[in-house]
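Re-running the complex after MR caught last week's input typo. The corrected sequence lines follow. Everything else is unchanged.
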Amino acid sequence: MKKFFKYLLLTIVTLIFVVVLTTSSILFWIIRNPQSAWTMAQEKFLPRDLIVSWTDMDFRLDHLSGWNYKLDWTIEGLKVTKESPEIILPIQHVRVHASIFPLSDNHKIVLHHLVLQANSPLTLSVPPSDKIETEKNPFQQFHEILSLTQKIHGRIRWEILDVKVPELKLSIGDSKPMVFNAGLQQSTIQDTPSLSYTLEMTLPEQIKLIANGNILQSTASAAQLEMNANIDFSGFSAHVKQKLKLTAGDNQTNISSEGPAEYINKNLKLSGRPQLALTMNPKSLQVKLKTAVNGILGPYVRLPATEVNITIPLESDRAWSEQPSTFMVNVPAQLIISDPQLKASISKSCECQPPEHFQMGASGNIWLHTVIPSDQSADKTFPLLDADVKINDVVNKLLTVKLAGHLKVEKQNANYKFLPSLNLALRVDSFQALARLLDGLGVMVPSPLDILEGTVEAKMNGPVDVTEKGYFFPLAATLKLNSTQQTVDASAEARVILANDLKSTSIDTQVSINQLQLELPPLKPTKGNPRILKDPRILSQPTAQKKPNEFKLEISISVKTTSPGAIRLLAEYFKPHIPISISFQSTDLSDNSGFIRLEPFDIVYLRREVHVSKMNIDLAKSDDNGLYVDGQLRIKQSQYTVFIDILGPANKPNIVFSSNPDLPRSEIINVLLYDRTSDQMLSTDVETSGQVEAAVADKAIGLFGIWAFASTPIRGFSYNPSTKVYTATVELADDVTASVGTKWESSTQVELRKRVSRRWMLTAAWTPADEGAPSSKLVLQWERRF
Amino acid sequence: MIYFWIILFFIVVTHSKEFTACETVIFHEGKIALNKNEQILVCGINEGPEGWKTVPLSQAEFHLKAVLQNLGYLTPRFERRDGKLQVWQGPQTNIKTLNVSGADGVLNSSKKRKVIGETLTPAKLNEIDAWANLGVRSQGYACPEINVTAHGWDGTVLLTTEIGKTKKFGELTSNDMTDLDRSVLLRYQPFNSGELYDIRKTQIMTDRMLADGLFQSAFFEKACLDETVNLELKTSMGPPRIVRFGIGASTEELPFVDLSFRNTRLDNKASSLTAALHASPRRLSLTADSELYWIPKWAQAFVGPRLDIVRKMEPTYETDTGKLGIDLGFKWDLWDTRLVGRAGPSYNSVRTRRGVGPTSNYPTIDASLNLMNHLYESLVWQQYEGWNASLFFRGQGKGLGSEVDVNRYEFNYKYLWNIQSFDPPLFILGTRMQGIFVDASDLTSIEAAEIIPAEDRVFVGGDQNLRGFSRQGISNNGFGYLSFLYLGFELRLIEELPYRFQPFLLWDLARTSEKRYTLDETLFVSEGLGLRWLSPFGTLRGSVARGRILNPPADMTIEAEKWVFFLSFGQEF
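Corrected-run output:
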């Protein structure tokens, strides 16, 4: 037995000797012939597409004492390439200079120099990880990293560190590459090592992060870590500059940051200076954010001190606890009316101060394990949000606002179920003040509406109906405005339907006009033609192509008068007024339908009286080319009653004349214009009348023209069928005429005949050349035709 | 000293850049005139209804934008300060390009004047629309779709057209013309079925009918078919008899009194009778004229009996004449030209009350032929383009009731050339010729003065021919001439001066002779300039020209080479 052990020991020693000798020989050969050794290893052991080469390598291992050695390894022109996954790592210079103390209780490795310098871009592709990681909460995840650094810090002492990577393209899976520019420096030997770092990271979608700072790790207590960082982030339309400080201990980590931030997207420009404080311990994570927000609703609303507090409970070995996180948002707001005159005007008008401060807020619970799911059961419904929203009541003489809401959100699979409840009451107590406020903001409330006084109320109460189609928000509004001569009494009901998938909304509004009485502007036909309509043919800017919006908004509106003639327009010439009835429907999906109907009324101007028997605008037949009208005018002349039936587009309607007693069309026009038949008229008047008839037949006269000629004595008319331009001289007062038309030549011809009295006419006659030598004469002429 | 302060105040006020449209609207740049109605909509009215005593500034801004757009100010700027609307109207936008699409070879935008560089306004777009309408409708495209839009940001005007195929005149129908024979229309009709459609010809036809008094109003309704355009003539027929009495003035007669009677429908062929009494310091006359369409199967021919009794009181002579005659005449349209001719015998009676001339009775043959290009006829008021010509003949034969053989020939020709065919034209070059030749055997005008009536002899000078000489100032000592040839030119500038004044340069040349078919060496020349204005009451023309006589005979007594002024109403070149 003793002999057996003797041989066994000898064999083991021999084997160890052989192994040591072989290993030493191999190592010696490798150290002496590194290039050949690597070539052999590459051919025999490493993947075929992995190629590692260098231009020069110097490896030196010096024995210090015992098991202690000093290593100095320098590689120049190192290049590592691999086809799949793609790796291209050209590194200009690598040096590792270290002392190894394997049996030391303190640092086992003292890294005197670690230098890595790459001058060319590096490419590194990493396949997506299929490793199922054990669930850890944020505190655990952070402290695992912290523990690792502590272990490294305990075993390795860093002295001089210089790592420069100008460009590293890192791709994970099929995602777009991230580009890093990183650097680590430590140039002095000190008790508390301070590692300076710079990191510039460029991500897809023009997202960029620049961070620099230092990391301090206390030697007194390995658990203490302090990191300072200046962060400059731009992306997602935001630009944030933050000064961040992180301190980590065994059981608590604190992060604080402060700096300017702004968000610019199209016309929205928000700015603020957020202050963030985050405290993390094994049981909870608390976030406190405080910031001012400028830019909401342009310069008119400021949020000076918005506060957000979130407390997230943490559980060991779970990413997010099933317990809800609590949040609270406080948004004190300032309403700013910068124009002191406008402010004074509103104050004076409503005898109130506009609300300058009001408070908005929200609080409730949010379930982060539902928001950021891991292994939730497919068919189970998880709570996601349970929140209250409130605007503190604003009450003064201008308006009263009450808003309170509750929102509960649940999630099943990838679907969200919203269970909102909303109580809204808005009452504008001074419409006049509101009109002035809107006018100050550039929103037109035109005359005569702007002088009306009264209330506008809008409200919504109770839970929002949730159906298969979506969420139904019932809204109601009433408008009661008055002045001495004018009245607006209307109500509206709207149903806002938000689709379940939140990708579309439809608004169905029904407006009922109980009474609307307004004064028309006191325009005088003798005081010039007002140029109040912009010519749609002149485009002021290129028509921008609308981008398709993923969010669909459908609006349908229905407007109707509750009684015939509920709309009354008052003016001097309309007796007693223009009564209008409306029934109008418009939706995005179908064409307009309904009608606008003028109930019977009279137009009285000078010595003419026109009775509008009916005037119906069929909105279903109206289009971009104009309104489709169906109307009848009745004009009582001395011996005849003329009827004008108008049917078709308002700018070129079909006009049918009839009379009682019956007359031919040309004679009806004679009677209409001159109150005489042709046998009693001057030939020039008959010619004028004929030109009117020609223009009517050519549809060159629109509804307005017919209206004007029916209600206004005409003195001259010229029509050019080539250009379809007509020029009319109408008698607006006993001694005032006005020309309607554009062509100077035409008006010239009209002016060639001036009526002096019923039978006397001033005529400029020109005899053309085919009757002899051309000549011209001015004649005051009396005429009778029989 | 007070004057200094008044002048200083005036300068400060007139140079102030601010313009207060009303209490609440202040113009810092520009100054526009709002009419009363626009003021109500922009500023409100204190005396008005309660709802319109004031107008919100946003509404004032809205209306001002429309007013300014109408004036070509497309980029106004508005600000509010101290509760008032501050306005900077900005520059006017000018049209930089005119692009025409869909009418290649039909509309040539480079020929359209008064667009590029002009202010972009709705009125200018209307003008472009009317130009396009007339352009395509006069070239066979009867029913076009024309749209005009403009880009305010780069001054581009886009004219898009859908003109379809060319169409031809199709069927011409008319409404009830009572018992009037439809063939009457032929004498007015400047087109035939199958010809290329031209809307100007439909206007010419209605103008002719109205000028003739046949109808009191007339117009066409058209129906576009695939290849043709059918026309329906709508007319209004008043009573046929017209009595007119007038007191008036012309450049030659001031004042005058007219009394006329006209029956436009003596029968169902629309034969007519006109009788007129005229009295002025220069002329007393009683005329009766008739066109009797009695010739079967030739609706455009007529028999025209006529009677003229006239006393003329000219500076160089005074005559009483009477003329009774009957013509055979026709009215015809051929090759885009109107032809009106008549010829027939007349019995004349002349008595010279003052000056040199005969007192006798004699028969003559009178003939005339007038030709007028349709283009000239359609633009007769503007005098832009086209031509017209006329031929006159009057002859009396010895032994046929006359003591002497006298044949008088006269031709007139005028051509208006729109240089470069711009629309509106830039320059119109007018050319006119006139030739009068009186053949009185071998007699000279001096020898024949006793036997040839003054109206048959030629008296030269005045607005109608040599504009550098006074009216009939070249009279050969009152004997007149027997031969006369005239060539006149006029270069007129269109729409370059404001208010439609048209300046022109003139140059007239003429030669005369007191012998038949002979022209003397003496050349009468006029050079000068003038101004034409198409006033609301007709054409006013003024000219100043200097007459020159080249190679004058030794015994010439005409005072020449002086500036002569003419101001005429209604006369054209």
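None of the earlier attempt is carried over here. The longest helix of chain B spans residues 122-137. The radius of gyration of chain B is 30 Å.
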